[in-house]
Design goal:
Elements (H helix, E strand, L loop, with lengths): L7 H14 L8 H12 L3 H14 L7 H68 L2 H61 L5 H30 L1
Helix pairs in contact: 1-2, 1-3, 2-4, 3-4, 5-6
């Protein structure tokens, strides 16, 4: 705590003690005067709250309960009243200044952007005027070059698309062959198991038959998807 404010906790304790010992309803104005002192000393409401809690601990235990607690709370509210009153104008002033500073910053940025656009427009206008003065021959040459580049770009695009389509069809065929071979292997294995399961239960045979049908359907589905990929 600052040297100038080190005496304030004792003054607060004395004031609160007198307030609690006075008759209920008595008005002395001591809390208000103490609040103005705290405001002049630059104390914040949080500091006053901490002092209030420490003082309550040193007082009669009854001060923290019932009517005494309410009277102590009212004393604290009166003390911080002058501090809160000084916070509001300062806070509003800071908000106004921040808002004005933000508005000024936005206006400055807008002006700077407009200035850049204006300079760019002037430069572009001068450049176009220079191009027009260069003559029709140069313009025709530039147009011819542009058409040539456009044709080259179209040819390259067509070649890239054709290569992508060929690669897609190749992958589709490889996928079809690989998955179909795998499922076919599963089907062959299931057929072998079915033949070897003569001595097994009927349920095992049925399960193997069901799995075999599933493998066949999966192979058909994969072929169908692969054919669709190859025709799109």
């Amino acid at each position: 705590m600052k040297p100038k404010t080190s005496h304030f906790p004792q003054r607060y304790a004395d004031g609160l003690r007198k307030h609690l010992s006075a008759k209920p309803g008595a008005v002395s104005g001591a809390a208000g005067r103490l609040g103005r002192v705290a405001s002049d000393l630059g104390l914040a409401t949080l500091e006053i709250a901490r002092i209030h809690e420490r003082v309550l601990v040193t007082l009669d235990p009854a001060a923290g309960h019932g009517a005494q607690a309410r009277r102590a709370e009212s004393f604290f509210v009166e003390v911080i009243g002058p501090i809160v009153a000084t916070y509001r104008p300062a806070r509003e002033d800071r908000v106004d200044r921040a808002r004005l500073a933000g508005e000024l910053g936005r206006r400055t940025a807008e002006l700077a952007t407009a200035n850049r656009l204006l300079k760019a427009g002037v430069a572009k206008h001068r450049s176009m005027a220079s191009e027009l003065k260069a003559g029709g021959v140069r313009h025709a040459r530039m147009l011819k070059e542009s058409l040539r580049l456009q044709g080259d770009f179209q040819r390259l695009t067509h070649q890239a698309l054709a290569a992508q389509e060929a690669e897609r069809q190749k992958l589709s065929r490889e996928l079809n062959d690989e998955v179909a071979q795998t499922l076919l292997g599963i089907n062959v294995r299931l057929v072998s198991l079915k033949r070897e399961a003569h001595g097994s239960t009927r349920g095992l045979k049925a399960e193997i038959a069901s799995t075999q049908k599933l493998a066949i359907r999966s192979a058909r589905s994969v072929r169908l998807v692969a054919r669709r990929l190859g025709t799109t």
